[in-house]
Amino acid sequence: MLAAIRRSEAAWTRALLLQLLLAGPGGCLSRQELFPFGPGHGDLELEAGDDLVSPALELSTALRFFDKSNIRSVYVTTNGLIATSEPPAKEAHPGLFPPTFGAVAPFLADLDTTDGLGKVYYREDVSPSATQLATECVQRGFPEVTFKPSSVVVVTWDNVAPYQGPGKDPALEDKRNTFQAVLASSDASSYAIFLYPEDGLQFYTTFSKKDEDQVPAVVAFSQGLEGLRWKSDGAYNIFANDRESIGNLAKSSNSGQQGVWVFEIGSPATASGVVPSDVNLGLDDGTEYDDEDYDSVTGVGLEVVGTTPFPHETPRRGDAGTYNVPGDLAPRRLATERPPTPPTERTRSFQLPAETFPQQQPQVIDVDEVEETGVVFSYNTDSRQTCANNRHQCSVHAECRDFATGFCCSCVAGYTGNGRQCVAEGSPQRVNGKVKGRIFVGSSPVPIVFENTDLHSYVVMNHGRSYTAISTIPETVGYSLLPLAPIGGIIGWMFAVEQDGFKNGFSITGGEFTRQAEVTFVGHPDKLVIKQQFSGIDEHGHLTIDTELEGRVPQIAFGSSVHIEPYTELYHYSRQVITSSSTREYTVTEPEQDGAAPSRVHTYQWRQTITFQECVHDDTRPALPSTQQLSVDSVFVLYNQEERILRYALSNSIGPVRDGSPDALQNPCYIGTHGCDTNAACRPGRGTQFTCECSVGFRGDGRTCYEVEKTRCQLEREHLLGAADSQRPRPPGLFVPECDEHGHYAPTQCHGSTGYCWCVDRDGRELEGTRTRPGMRPPCLSTVAPPVHAGPAVPTHVIPLPPGTHLLFAQTGKIERLPLAGSTMTKTDAKALLHAPEKVIIGLAFDCVDKVVYWTDISGPSIGRASLHGGEPTTIIRQDLGSPEGIALDHLGRNIFWTDSHLDRIEVAKLDGTQRRVLFETDLVNPRGIVTDSVRGNLYWTDWNRESPKIETSYMDGTNRRVLVQDDLGLPNGLTFDAFSSQLCWVDAGTSRAECLKPGQPSRRKVLEGLQYPFAVTSYGKNLYYTDWKTNSVVAVDLAISKEMDTFHPHKQARLYGITTALSQCPEGHNYCSVNNGGCTHLCLATPGSRTCRCPDNTLGVDCIEQK
How far apart are CA 820 and CA 976, in angstroms? Predict the structure, then answer.
């Protein structure tokens, strides 16, 4: 099957390469062959300029697009795009694809018609001449379809220029592009026709205002944002997005005429994606090209025809993301066929990939007529891939890590697998698949043939025992297949109990591999070939397998039984190949005859090769032992004649090669006598000691485990994944939320195929202004505290702080202290200051007067404090909070200030939490870091709003608000003000920089670049100290020499949040609120050289006086 597909793909590639080489200039589309356009044909003209959008063009016939059937107007833009709804102003210039609105993009780029640099025409046309021309184009591309449009939308970009940015390129000065998009609609369906005339595309890239660089144009379709409550990117298709494929638009075609491209965009077949035509370019004369022809044609080199090789990625079942299938490699359909499945995202129909196959492995076994096979997924090693755009290739229960040459996936704690596929440790597994066979029995000249036979297997993982059943096996062959326990034994190897330092098949391959085996029966001329394809985990959480059996087996009499003794088998590992061979005996006992049951011992030789793909980018990953020993016992085989079911059962463990001494195998985890629940993992200890641990999703003592009630996130995932048809790939663009290890919505959600990430609240709703572009993850905070596990109670009182200056930093559920000796971190003396396991502490602030630490807790939410002299912590604010994050303290005026990113406001209150007043509640999206300059009466804060990140300042009374920094920011998280140097510094997780400025001076200084993922920052002496999410550490940076000096990794490797400096004494200075509360009755808020008396919110004010 796989070989047939590859042969078809190869032929298709050859045909496409021939198209380009044989198509001369005479076959190109001329400008006269475009749909008529211009004012004389009733066209409207888009206003000249840059990044402009037309008024709505009302349609007499509704446009159908993806799964929508009633689009009554469209909008035309300067930038080579037709929108199905009015584009937001912030998306007027080309940016990331897909946009938030529905889009048809024949050439999406930053185009310019300023000062007569070309024109953009558009109209709806119902004339017979226009509709007939559209009919001819569509029927050329889809000859099996009867389509008669009642109207067409014709949009022409005529001699438009590229936007060049600040530095104009003389080479592009006279370059102009002309192209056309036609949307043809009937009452039942809609089609798009893109036309690119000869010499119509003279430039392929334009200057991006966002990236400040030349970027290629994009040819694509997008459904826009979908969903009522949970909005996510709908389906989209990118057909060209690089120079080579854009350059082929006028040279090639998918409809049989050069420069003309046809797509079905609105019908029942396009609910999950646009359907491209696939008609050949004039090579339908039945001519066949052999390999010599192909070699002679391609000998000129692929670069001549502008092709770009890239791996052919096959979809993985159960993957939350999408997959890439080069459209030009798709086998051609018959004229009467509809597409077998919806097209995939990012189908690059214009890119003509070179024929690519997985790297050839050394020949290991000699199996007759074994077809070349591939792997189910492929790590792309052609160019460096990163997690940002490939996170969907990892399991939702895995983490993705970038390395110098690419990315790798690894399962998180509690799960096992290869990172691409992960399952809960100790959880029972199910394997489903199909078996087909063509088997000769004994000396019979007629084969027994069976198709579409079901295989089901159940695995008790913590015993390493697999139970496999193959149904509807004809009795003429059923008994003769009894010795072939290895058919199901491969499943036992996948989930064999692992001894320390050794890996079973699933840990190595993730259940994605190809297996080929050969069985030779000693003393018989009989040989059987077994081919199995394992395709990972499907939408229902089951592994999938396809098995093919072909050859001859010795005949075993009806009613016989077969016994197989325990055996061992050596598995030899080399890069991406596993081989094994062995000789096995089995005893056949025939039915009783004349009071005797004759039995005979038979032997067969077994050889197999397993081919898989591993991630080669992680050099730190421990190497697999070159040889591992699989030990198999309790082998049971049975054929049920009445039910026609063949059954195999085996117990398996994997470990080192042994001389036959079983001593080291006596741990109950290895021999299956542990008594752990079937939903628990057995953890071997020393000697015969072991523990039982319930699998993820279960609770209990390990001996007895019960299922935990599913959370809202888990139920949503099951609904989405269960809605996918298990017989076809998941629809492109489908977003499936990620849940954390406790079942709550992960605070950061990412779309597997687009690379966009955003923050969500505890109910999974997207938080405004948090969506980041691919390659950047927003600094989202979990608002749900982890469950408190039963165990010894942790004291919640503060452990008194020793004398001296300390760093205080927050981790989920606790605050730690790190003493400073001068500016040096005394790492050996770091200890917990306060345990609060039910809280998610984010921001920290320190009162140097009373020696009290203040914090924000987003799980409550609440604001609390505790004295460093010891005692119990107290909550001072718990009402009317959303997500309090940053917190700052004016030790002179005795006030606290905090940011709330959910309520989008900044507030102030007295140190005991009373007299609250909202300072700001407008023009805030994601406020986080906040600091005070107590002596001067200034307030500073960050807002990491993805659309417009900024650092702002005001007086402490809220007056004189202004933007301090707005340019060249990404995700400004942490902020600190050093009272001694009067310097404001911040760390930015988007630009990966630490920067500083003096507020009264315009210049800013880059202190350090290349930070990993900084979150919060504080300063003391000559150093900055910041917490880092990626390294889970506190990092010291010398401000004077711009160098990282030291790093502290806490014992608990969990995410670090806020950090502050607990000074041994307060900085010198005073403000006008220092003495007698500034004479104010309530809030005294300092300003430069003065103060303002303010009243709290929600008071009648009879005893409060406001004054300046």
Answer: 18
Query: What's the rounded Cα separation, in Å, for the pair 786 and 743?
Result: 10
Q: How far apart are CA 218 and CA 221, in angstroms?
A: 10
Nearest to residue 497, comparing CAs of 696, 632, 648, 652?
Answer: 652
The span from the CA of 796 to the CA of 209, in Å, is: 53
Q: How far is CA 1055 from CA 307, 772, 776, 782, in A?
A: 45, 20, 18, 11
Q: Strand pairing partners for 907? A: 898, 918
Asked whether the beta carbons of 1031 and 1019 are under 8 A apart, the reply is no
pLDDT interval class at 382 (50, 70, 90): very low
Give the pLDDT of residue 179. 96
Band of the pLDDT at 130, cuts 50, 70, 90?
very high
pLDDT in tens, 53-81: 999 999 999 999 998 888 999 999 999 99
First to last CA, the chain: 84
Whether residue 29 contacts residue 195, with contact meaning beta carbons closer than 8 Å, is answered with yes
Angstrom CA distances, 216 to 6, 42, 98, 800, stand at: 31, 32, 15, 61
**Kind plus residue range of the DSSP H or E element containing 233:** strand 232-233
Closest CA to 628 of 462, 468, 463, 507: 507
Element (H, E) at 476: helix 475-478
- Rounded to 10°, the helix 291-298/2-22 angle is 50
Q: CA 162 → CA 62, 197, 209, 245, 256, distances in Å? A: 32, 18, 12, 18, 29
Q: What is the pLDDT of residues 530-556, one digit of tens each?
A: 999 998 887 677 889 999 999 999 999
Cα–Cα distance for residue pair 66/342, rounded to 1 Å:
11
DSSP E strands, 724-830: 748-750, 757-759, 806-811, 814-821, 824-825
Write out the H or E segment, with its range, that includes residue 973: strand 972-978
Q: Which two tokens stand for residue 257?
A: 């005429």
What are the start-end ranges of the E strands in 381-489? 398-403, 406-411, 415-417, 422-424, 429-441, 448-460, 465-470
What tokens appear for 948 in the block?
């417009």
What phi and psi values does residue 251 have, to the nearest 5 degrees? -90, -25
Q: Report the C-alpha gap between 915 and 1096 in whole angstroms.
A: 5
